[in-house]
Design brief:
With about 475 residues, the protein is of the alpha+beta class. It contains 11 helices and 29 strands. Strand 21 and strand 22 form a beta hairpin. InterPro entries: Carotenoid_Oase.
Amino acid sequence: MFFQIFLHFVSNLSTIAVGFLSVIVYRIPVLKKYMENAHQKKVIFGKQKNLPCIAPLLTTVEETPKIISAQVRGHVPKWLNGYLLRIGPGKFEFGKDKYNHWFDGMALLHQFKIEKGTVMYRSKFLQSDTYKANSVHDRIVVSEFGTLALPDPCKNIFERFMSKFELPGKFAGMTRNYIIFIEQPVKMNLWKIITSKIRGKAFSDGISWEPQYNTRFHVVDKHTGQLLPGMYYSKPFVTFHQINAFEDQGCVVIDLCCQDDGRNLEVYQLQNLRKTGKGLDQAYNSVARSFPRRFVLPLHVSLNAPEGENLSPLSYSSASAVKQADGKIWCSYENLHPKDLEEEGGVEFPQINYGQFSGKKYRFFYGCGFRHLVGDSLIKVDVVNKTLTVWREESFYPSEPIFVPVPGTNEEDGGVILSVVITPNQNERNFLLVLDAKNFEELGRAEVPVQMPYGFHGTFVTI
């Protein structure tokens, strides 16, 4: 259930956010891989040893419907007034039935009310039809992404499938004038999914990584709805989150967090996330790392454009777009990070100053570093100077960073970063962290005496 909810939630956070399945549901058949890019290193695995157990971050918790006061240490800026809203899986079993995949858990909504330097907290499970049905029967009665259940007697098998995968927000990136769809080499086998119950398999069994195909970009004119004729291809990769996209000198520039292997969803089975010792190390070391990359798509390519030459006019980017003999355009990316980011385990959950720089040329983005199977640091990346700044506290795991600007400022990083930081240690408290977005130094934290599971996405609403 959470898998459906978080995709819908993400699609409304910004004009460039997108859920992974919303892309592959509308997958267009791709062509065979026609060239290898020998100049770009395939970054997949990073090695870690003796990872600490994070099982307490992935277990069922109680909701906190009554508002409680948080204990503030340091200070929360008086100008910061609003609600930090977050969502993530918080219930992983009903009766004796247990969910198999992290994405299957029931959605738990969190609210941090920030007002005049004080912080209040509460949480509540989303009262979805699935949650109610499972609660009434005290078992899992609706199948989820990675968990097979006895059928819902009120729906036939096709209705149940469509209720899972008819998702809003079908775009991958958006600029002022264009929408960019990313066709990834991940296959959704409709027949396998529809027959999953008969075969005794979960929906996830019908999704497969197909690296023999390339990734393709489709550019659509937002005003006319017409697909541009350019055929843009790149080496196979998977993206869960987009950073930003903008137009410059007749090109669309799109920045993505990319992985070179699309089998990561298999690793996020709860049995893997809850492992200890060597088993946990092996699970982590099998996961492809995610790194920020820039692609440049020239919009108006002449039939007489020379073959084998870079068609990108952007002097500030090493990303290239080369026309092939068959008219296709092969796109090679630019890395937007220094080598130091590899030591941080890559980056995911990217956020920018969306209010002022969404769809525009920008300099900074923020995300989580992944030296574990969940985020274990907060990172600020300067995509112009290729530098990064890191916040980390041992045994604590921060959530997706949310940027909130200082009222009236024109500075791109003039504001604060909000992140919910949790720990598996029972003698420590979880807290809402407030960082100065410029120097990434802590301004304050608001501690709450309740257990929280690791979540995914959030947004800030000003009051």
